[in-house]
Design goal:
Shape: globular
Number of helices: 7
CATH architecture: 3-Layer(aba) Sandwich
Helix content: 40-55%
Number of strands: 5
Strand content: 5-15%
Number of domains: 1
Oligomer: single chain
Largest sheet: 3 strands, parallel
Length: about 140
């Protein structure tokens, strides 16, 4: 299996309301839970996910439960000072990246991971990192 990192959007869409990404993201989360996929997440993803989840009408206890499930099904990456330095460089180079996405990209690149599973086009153009769209079945197959 190919190493990859998740972007927060995959989990947000999987648990969210009606959206074209909801069903593909639900299938991805299910595959991760069963071991058919083995994506990694940043501790920053857990923070962002919980923040978004509780703001989108979920209770705090629901956000905590869902965040715990993500931490249990994925390998967690800690943010290092080396990651932050590279993230700041990427953030400066790519106007399309917000700072948290720059952290995700930096962590992947610093660990030799060349793919991020994300609906966010902001990752497009980051050298050495391929964005895999959750709705692209052909691209998803490259992760298995």
């Amino acid at each position: 299996m190919r190493r990859f990192v998740f972007d927060t959007g995959v989990f947000v869409y999987a648990l969210g309301g009606e959206h074209p990404y909801r069903d593909p993201c639900r299938a991805i989360v299910s595959a991760q839970g069963s071991g058919a996929l083995t994506g990694e997440v940043s501790v920053e993803l857990i923070h962002e996910f919980a923040y978004v989840r509780v703001r989108r009408a979920a209770s705090r206890s629901d956000a905590i439960r869902a965040a715990r499930e993500i931490t249990e099904m994925c390998t967690l990456q800690q943010v290092t000072s080396h990651d932050m330095q590279r993230a700041l460089d990427l953030w400066g180079e790519h106007q399309s990246l917000d700072v948290r996405d720059a952290i995700f990209a930096a962590q992947a690149l610093n660990r030799g991971i060349d793919a991020i599973l994300s609906p966010d086009h902001g990752f497009d153009g980051v050298d050495g990192l391929e964005r895999i769209d959750p709705a692209d079945a052909h691209a998803l197959a490259t992760l298995r």
